[in-house]
Structures are given as C-alpha cells and as structure tokens.
Write a structure and sequence with these properties.
Shape: rod-shaped
CATH superfamily of the largest domain: Class I glutamine amidotransferase (GATase) domain
CATH class of the largest domain: Alpha Beta
Structural class: mainly beta
Distance between the termini: 122 Å
Low-confidence stretches: 1-10
CATH architecture of the largest domain: 3-Layer(aba) Sandwich
Strand content: 35-45%
Radius of gyration: 53 Å
Strand order of the largest sheet: 2-1-3-4-12-11-10-7-8-13
Number of helices: 4
Number of strands: 42
CATH topology of the largest domain: Rossmann fold
Helix content: under 10%
C-alpha cells in the first residue's frame, strides 16, 4: 500500500512538468519551448504529465504514482510559482521526504526573492550570471547519459538568480562572482535540485546545454546512472577477484547474473572467481530504487577454465651436459628463470651447461590468457675425476697392468690389445706405443676421462735419484733405482765415506735403502752406491754414483 507521507516509490512511474498557463516561459528566447522538448526526449512524447499552477491536482501530481516533478518559474512565471509554493510547500516537502525527486528552477524576470522551502533555501533575485561553470565535473549530471555536456556554458543570460541556504551541495556557479546558480539537497528519502537558470534556448554551446538539462531530469527521475564494465571480458579462475568499473558519476544498482553459477555480490558487483563456475554470463546492473523508469546496464563476462600445466619429470644431469625440458597443456609457455635455457618461451627448451642445481617454473597459458604453473627440479652432479695411472713401460711380448680409479664402471679404448676393456685394471698386450683412454662413469651416470701411455721397451732402462729424505712423509723416503722393462737379476750396495758397506739388496728391486744401518739412522751426507742388473734380453748393466741423504 502506497500512502502519502510514507511513500514507497519502487512502483512510481509518472513524471510531471508544472508551470504557469501557456505560453511557455521566455517566449522571446532564440529557441522556444525547450523545456517541453527536453521532457519529451527524456520521458517520451505524450508520456509525461503537463500541469499548470492554477488548475493542477496537487494530490495527483505529488502522489504515490509520481516519482519526478519539474516546477518552472522562469520569466513571467515566477510570481505564479511563488504563490503555488506558498500554498503547497508542506505537501511538496512531504512528498520529497517520502522519496520523490524535484527539479525546482526559476529565472525570474520580475518580482523579488522566492522562498524555495526545504528548511530555508532561498532564490535570490536579481543576481545575473552570464556564464555557468561546473563545480564538480564528476557529478552524474555532467557525465551522461546525454553527451556531450561540457563543464562551461554561457548565454544571455545563463542565470537570473542564485541560491542560498543550509545543506546545499553546489553544482554550477557563476565563474565571475562565485555565486551558486544550481545546487542539490537530500531531503529524507528524496532529492531536490534547485536552479536559477534560464531555459536552454538562451544557452550555448548546443547541444551541451540541452544535454545538461536532460541529464538533470534523468538523474532525478532514475536516481541512478548505472553504466559499468569490468576491466576484462574474460577472467581466469586464478585471477584477482574483479570489481566493476563504473562510468564517471555512475551509481551502483543491484547486480544479477544469468545463467546461475556466477558468485557475484549484488551490492558491490564483486565477483568471487574461486567460487564461480566457468562459463559465459550476462551481468545486469538494475536500478531498484526511486525512479520513473527502471534503469539498467549489462556486461557479458566469461570465466575460462584454466589449463593444467604438466611436465615429464624432475631431472638429474652431469656438469657440461645439455638436456631438454618438456612441458604440456598450453598454447604459450614461459620458463622462469630463463638462466641457462636456449629459449625460455618455447614448450621444450634446452638446458645447456648449468653451473648449479636449478628449480624452474613453467607458466603454461591458454588462448584466453589463463595460466597454470608446474615445477621442474634439476639436480646437477659433478663429473668424476678419473685417473688412468702413470705411464707404463712394456717389453715386447710382455704385458703390463693398467689401473684406473675414480669411477664405478669403466670403458677403455682402443680395446684390441686389452684383456677386458670394461674393468678398472685390464692387462695391456701392446705391440707398439699406445695411448689408452678410459671413460669412467660414477653412480649418477656422470663421466670423466683420462689417458695413459704404454711405451714399448725391448730392453731395460734405469734411472737413479740423487737424493732422498727418509722422514716418513710418503715422498722419496727410500733410495731406490727406477727400472723400466724386465729385470732378471740385480744387486745394489751402498757404502759410507769410510768404505764400509751399510746396505745390500740382492732380491727385491722394489725395496730401497731407508737410510739406516743396523737399525740406526745414518747421518746426513753423501753415500756411494753400486748397481748391477741383467734385463730380459740378457743385456748387462752396471752403475756407480753418489746419493745424498737429507733429513
């Protein structure tokens, strides 16, 4: 039930224009009857109600089916308007308080100040304004729906009066005097815009001035300018929840979406992507408050199903190697970080010679720009240090044992003269000088390489150090001749400076003098040695020299 004094305007649909009996105000303006033209444009020709001060039914005009009234007092309509307001102000104020919207405008051409009511709002006449300037360009009346509007207008005159009173929100001022020519005020559940402006037939530029007047009608009649959008028309589930973007000066309405599945806040328009289902939705912003016509705007938005990023596996690799990373699930790919990759923007890049362990994220995106990530861990192992041992000498027709270390498995080449190329210590039966290469592989499959020379000798070769230091440090602790080739027999004797033999070895060429005699350390100094031997070919050798003992 709609009752006066407690109006519920959700069903109010009627608009009224009230003024003095014809003719319209300002019959000598350059453009006539602009009030009527502008009402027709906003509400539709023949749809709005026309009323006159001397015969309008005020209980109908300011009744529960009316949501907007325009009262005009321009030119010679000012005194009849003043009389009408004096007679009906209580009714008008109650109607606005209950939710009605009123445009009260007068540019008098005679008379004195007019009491506009609403707790002391007064129209001051005369106070002429050649020009008008917007105070807050973000206000809805300066931003549509009728555009262009502009923010500065002039004419002969733009206004004839100015406004004073409590709680006014200035909208337009005289740029020369700073006096307010147009202002608004909230009154209970309703709203009023007061003006001292002439009809737009006096104003320039056009159509900006006329659009301004129609925006005032629209703003008051609908109480909402609802144009909105979202930053994107396609969102992914992992995106930040979007708020609507409202046009400058727009109000919020009630948001609804079809079909079901979109989690949208009806008041703010915030979309909870994590709680929404993928799909395409028509989002409507409805005006359900005061207004002659329900206002709405719409935006179509899609929530896309994100891709699923996938990779083959984590990798291990050896230093210096190149491997291929592999991913699936998208249209475009980005690997982060790009370090050591030949191209971070391909699906399967090459990872080349990393210097450390790496963790890569691949961002997989689909045609909608939705993305997912997957992780690849690459563990880097150092290559083993393989040692093929010292070069070896071999007599023709004999053999020598090679000895590699540092790996778990081995592979020797060339393998034709080896007893087994796949062990650490194969026997070499080389018949010519040969360089053997051994590839050692550790428990991670990483490889190292080293080489050893096997040198063919048909006779023995001996060499002797000139000093040794028996200090048990593992280096040069014994005096021992070095023999290459096959030694059949040998003798080695060491004498001190008095000619006394203090060491003799007739059996083991691998055992040397440790610098003692009768288990006593001998003093530092020079000693004489004699050495004889016979090699595998029967050739005899004899050597004499000096060896220095150093402690």
């Amino acid at each position: 039930m709609l009752t006066q004094g407690n109006l519920l305007f959700s069903q109010a649909t009627e608009a009224w224009y009230i003024r003095r009996d014809p003719p319209e105000p300002w019959t000598w303006a350059p453009i006539l009857n602009t009030n009527i033209t502008e009402m027709d444009e906003v509400f539709g020709e023949g749809v709005w109600h026309s009323g006159f001060y001397d015969d309008v039914d005020v209980t109908e005009a300011f009744g529960p089916t009316t949501c907007f009234v325009f009262i005009e007092g321009g030119d010679d309509h000012a005194i009849p308007m003043n009389d009408f307001l004096v007679a009906n102000m209580t009714l008008i104020e109650d109607w606005v308080y209950a939710g009605g919207s009123l445009f009260l405008n007068a540019a008098p051409n005679y008379g004195v100040n007019v009491d506009f009511g609403f707790n002391g709002i007064e129209l001051i006449y005369p106070d002429y304004a050649w020009d008008g300037q917007a105070i807050d360009p973000a206000h809805p009346i300066f931003n549509g729906p009728y555009i262009p509007v502009g923010t500065y207008w002039y004419g002969n005159y733009f206004g004839h009066a100015v406004l004073e009173g409590p709680d006014l929100v200035p909208l337009i001022e005289d740029p020369l005097s700073g006096h307010v020519v147009c202002a608004e005020k909230a009154w209970g559940a309703g709203k009023i815009i007061f003006g001292g402006m002439t009809t737009t037939g006096w104003h320039t530029p056009l159509p900006e001035a006329s659009n301004l007047r129609m925006n005032i009608f629209k703003y008051l009649a609908s109480y909402a300018f609802l144009d909105f959008s979202y930053a994107q028309d396609i969102y992914c589930l992992e995106d930040e929840d979007p708020y609507p973007i409202f046009a400058v000066g727009a109000d919020t309405g009630i948001f609804v979406a079809e079909p079901a599945g979109l989690d949208i806040d009806p008041i703010t328009g915030l979309i909870d992507l994590s709680e929404s289902l993928p799909g395409t939705y028509d989002i409507t912003n409805l005006f359900e408050g005061i207004g002659c016509k329900s206002d709405s705007s719409q935006f179509t938005l899609t929530i896309a199903i994100p891709p699923v990023a996938d990779v083959i596996e984590d990798f291990t690799m050896c230093r210096g190697d190149t491997i291929q990373l592999t991913s699936f699930g998208g249209v475009t790919y980005e690997w982060v970080p790009p370090t050591y990759l030949n191209d971070p923007f391909v699906q399967n890049p090459l990872l080349m010679n990393p210097l450390t362990d790496m963790v890569y994220l691949v961002i997989v995106s689909d045609i909608n720009g939705c993305s997912d990530t997957a992780e690849v861990v690459v563990t880097l192992y150092d290559n083993p240090i393989i040692d093929a041992g010292e070069d070896q000498y071999i007599l023709l027709g004999s053999y020598v044992e090679l000895d590699a270390s540092g790996g778990v498995t081995y592979s020797w080449t060339p393998e034709g003269t080896l007893s087994d190329p796949n062990i650490s210590n194969p026997l070499s039966y080389a018949t010519e000088n040969t360089t053997y290469y051994v590839i050692g592989t550790d428990e991670h499959g990483c490889m190292g390489i080293d080489s050893v020379n096997v040198i063919l000798r048909e006779d023995a070769v001996f060499s002797f150090p000139n000093a040794f230091s028996p200090n048990s440090d593992g280096v040069n602790d014994e005096f021992l001749p070095i023999a290459y080739g096959t030694v059949v027999d040998f003798t080695i004797n060491v004498y001190n400076r008095w000619g006394e033999m203090i060491y003799e070895n007739l059996a083991d060429i691998t055992k040397g003098w440790d610098g003692t005699f009768e288990e006593k350390d001998q003093p530092m100094g020079s000693y004489i040695y004699y050495f004889t031997a016979t090699d595998g070919t029967g050739q005899h050798f004899a050597y004499q020299g000096n060896i220095t003992l150093v402690r």
